[in-house]
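Why do we bother with a discrete structure alphabet at all? Because it lets us treat a fold like text: something you can write down, compare, and reason about line by line. To make this less abstract, here is a complete entry for Shikimate dehydrogenase (NADP(+)). Read it the way you would read a sentence in a foreign language you are learning: slowly, and without expecting to understand everything at once.
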Amino acid sequence: MTGSVTAATGKPTFLAGLIGTGIQASRTPAMHEREGAEQGLRYIYKLIDLDKLGLGTDALPDLLTAAVRLGFDGLNVTYPCKQAIIPLLDDLSEDARALGAVNTVVLRDGKSFGHNTDGWGFAEGFRRGLPDVRRDRVVQLGAGGAGAAVAHAALTLGTGQLTLFDVDGARAEALAGDLCRRFGPGRAVAGSNLPDAMARTDGLIHATPTGMAKLPGLPLPAELLHPALWVAEIVYFPLETELLRVARRMGCQTLDGGGMAVFQAVGAFQLITGRKADADRMRRHFSSM
């Protein structure tokens, strides 16, 4: 076990934080702190909102240095920092290196170690929420930090072919190439015609920031959705995004971003504290908020 012990209480103490933009509505701090309390820890979890601080990703080196000096045990990292933080870290886990994205940084003895629990988090949520859906062809919107993790998870879950779309076409091409090298030729492609891909797909994974409280709206034209689709969302604040509202009205099976939020937090909690989290308890707490 890492962390320190508070003299006044005798409880192991952990200090962690979340770095990202527009994160005031995040449920991550409450999930970590409640699970810590349930395990007899003094767990303090701080929001480090770049928007509120008037900072950009160029502040990451200073923020990481400050976290080390202030005795933080770990950090979670979200949009738009999951890839930008990588060059600043001392080492990466196998998953983080393969995905090219970090969502959890463990700080030990002045060193920083990057991990990624997003892919596992998405897969666990998907297995529970959409266990029996067809996955021969799947369209994914977003090939950034979270998108890379979700794409790996989608192929691990048995997706036949994943078609990737991103505002940065080169980023979609690069991710498709990485996925094919890991999972086999043709398993992932960068898409060029979204209406055509949506007409032929079994399901849609949304992995862009669109729909967050800070960035409301739909990530694609509503007319591209149809009742035969399933739709999986990774945005979780708000839990009911416009995409999910429209999809449900059309009769699609849907999966909100809550499952991924809970299970990535389960993984991050264990990395930061060295203690196994109670996933069912964390899920109940998430649902109660």
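What the structure line is telling us, in plain words: The mean pLDDT is 94. The longest helix spans residues 258-273.
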